[in-house]
Amino acid sequence: MGKTPVIAIVDDDEGVRTSLTSLVRSLGYEAHAYESGVDFLRQPPGNDPECMIADVQMPAMTGDELQAQLVASGRRFPIIFMTAFPSETVRQRVMAAGAHCYLGKPSSGDEIIRCLEEALAGDATH
Question: Whole-prediction pTM value?
Answer without folding.
Answer: 0.93
